[in-house]
Amino acid sequence: MTSNHELDDAAEALPPAVSELFGTGASTARGERTRQELIVAAKICFEEFGYTKTRISDIVQRAGVSHGNFYRHFTNKADVLTAAIHPCVCDLLQGTRRNGRSDSGDLSALIASTTSYFTVYARHRQLMRVMHEAAAAQDGSGFIEKWLLIRREFTARTSGWLGHLQERGVIAYDCDVDTLTEALSAMTEQLAHLEIGLPEKAPRAEQLIRMGRTAGEIWYRSIPWTPRAVPPAS
């Protein structure tokens, strides 16, 4: 389990454009308590009813506050969903950072990274499912733009890592780093969505380990290592 201190570090590490999506909190202690009550209530409602079926009236009723209090802190339900996913985003960021990738062709490091991603994803599987639903809703709320901005933070880390390896001659100089990043990221995200997010039951730990190993091996074999890197696994 990721500690609160680690999540705080991950939140501070978010680029300004992403941090701004989650807001700065209320100006008073009482206002912040109300805001947090709304976020907790919204998370419960979203996970129980889904994004589309959740109404703002459901959220305020569960939080025990008025509609006016809701709109004092949030513009719409996409706005409160964005606030609700903040811990999830930080957990994913910190989990994959803690099990980072190496500066060479290290299969074990890639397996550790993908396994960590799936493990954290499973911890937030219900909310991740809601995020997919909200992103596909096309309801004019602007959530899809927010979600894509958050996703770009994760893919930028991968492309930056691959670019670093390319500069050092560890992977082929003619590798299309951006396209490879998108392909590997999309594969990993879709596998998580289909095998972790959508099923009725949460995955067992051994399933997450198997998924992490398989995805890590796919990453490893898809990256065009040069002879300077560790030889491909047999």
UniProtKB/TrEMBL annotation:
* A GO molecular-function annotation: transcription cis-regulatory region binding
Which keywords fit this entry according to its UniProt record? DNA-binding
Residues forming the HTH tetR-type domain are 32-92
Residue range(s) of DNA binding per entry: 55-74
Record SUPFAM superfamilies: Homeodomain-like, Tetracyclin repressor-like, C-terminal domain
**Highest taxon in the source lineage:** Bacteria
Metal-binding keyword on record: no
What name appears for this protein in its UniProt entry? HTH tetR-type domain-containing protein
